[in-house]
Amino acid sequence: MPAPAEGLGRSRQSAVYREGIHGRRPVVPTDFAELERRARRACSAEAWAYVAGGAGEGRTMTKNLQAFERRSIVPRMAGGNTERDLGVELLGRHLPAPVLLAPVGALALVDDESDVKIARAAARHGLPYLFSNQGCQSMEECAAAMDGVTEGSPRWFQLYWSTDEDLVDSFIARAEAVDAGALVVTLDTTLLGWRPQDLNLGSLPFARGIGIAQYTSDPRFNQIVEDRIAAVTSGAVEAEKPEVTLGAIRTLLAMSRRHPGATVANLRSLVPRASVETFLDIYSNPGLSWDHIATLRDRTRLPVVLKGIQHPDDARRAFDLGVDAVVVSNHGGRQVDNGIASLDSLVDVRAAVGPEPTVLLDSGIRTGADVFVARALGADAVLLGRPYVYGLALDGEDGVHDVVSNVLAELDLTMALTGVGSLDSITPEHVRG
User: Fold this and answer.
1) CATH of region 7-197+285-432
2) Residues 193 and 330: beta-carbon distance below 8 Å
């Protein structure tokens, strides 16, 4: 009889236990509850409100977790599998596991070099990182960081559809230039949801220049800003006179620090403030419609993914328009309160579109067991969000890497203990409820 394979799960366990022999415990907790508790202590009030907060009373966030709790995994015995294959084919590329790192904006609230650290951690695993449209480092910087780990590391780009169509095209062109594997259009954030945690602090990171690096690095956006300044200085447009308060001064300083270039020069310039104002005016399009989506096939060679699908009819319409994949997502419960859980939506969407189309799941994924359940109920892969952000808060790049390692290890062990040797062998029969 062959010796049992080490596998991701046993390898991860062994590494942690070996450290334990020397009295060293993991910097990043291996359970989500403790991970969340420690991350909260490591974050500022503004950072925690933005990252951990949800819409309204937080009921959608709760439902996301409850949907997983309602499902029970049903192990099968004596499967004889000494090795597991976690690999998956996704949009023409083989990935070592069915996990992608979700786009999360404004993470300089947590770590000044947030996006490049996340990018490197993803590249170390060979997994895609979805560059956030609201990132704090440009997609070019993130792509270079990933290539510095492994040339050609998989990366996707998330697009928020601006009111300026030329800016949309500029973002798409840049995504193609950095070899993004897909263009992920976020549908569910044409407006910001009602987020009391942020509102109670009066905290909008973008208003302080946090999370607008994709814009300030874009030639089309910078042209819009120049035109705005020219209109004001020429008198063609009357500028609003800002109220001078201590808070306003701090905000201006934050803008100047975040904007490209030297802080002192930025303080003397109209550009940082104009950039923030321009961003707030045009970053997202409340009028986004299926007619906009229909133009994408003529605007990009990239696979098109729609993120934010929650109704089966919307999924059908998306695939009828020729998109390559959808992400079933309620934005981590951050947009609509008392909304349907993403896992429940997944079941409906998969039933509606059949087995062939590529369907991903976002919102509520916390553990490797969650990934197993999502796969059983029809997800080709999942997007991991808050957990890796909590790892970032605790230990930077290594913290992100460790969180992903733990999720993959638990997925591997769950497969082993349920008699499953590959992702394709995970079926609805493995889950009840």
Assistant:
1) 3.20.20.70
2) no
